[in-house]
């Protein structure tokens, strides 16, 4: 799927290029972390309503729609208010905030690959 640029309709870009441009421009990729009490039930629920859910293990899954990450599912566990800032093995530099209602917000950016 491609779309035209707003000011230059002669230029067409795909989602991969848009994501790359966002990172180059310093954009932030945000996907909420939803704490769940039963990962299996949650995965089934979100698949039933139309999301593609990718399981990583017994505690973590990611919901996608149209090849875009929409939110993450995390089995509820002891949560810290803020985690340390770390480079993750999946290629992001990130930390996580947890609000008083146990909603986690992961803040991060892709680590440039050269």
Q: How does the major sheet shape up?
A: 7 strands, mixed
Number of helical elements: 2
Determine the CATH superfamily.
Answer: 2,3-Dihydroxybiphenyl 1,2-Dioxygenase, domain 1
Mean of all residue-level pLDDT scores? 84
* Uncertain parts: none
Which structural class is indicated by helix and strand composition?
alpha+beta
* Domain count: 1
> What is the general shape?
globular
Q: Tell me the span between the first and last alpha carbons.
A: 27 Å
Number of strands: 9
Helix content estimate: 10-25%
Which band does the percent of strand residues land in? 35-45%
Strand order of the largest sheet: 4-5-6-3-9-8-7
CATH class: Alpha Beta
CATH architecture: Roll
Order of helices and strands: EEHEHEEEEEE
Radius of gyration: 16 Å
The fold-level CATH name is 2,3-Dihydroxybiphenyl 1,2-Dioxygenase, domain 1
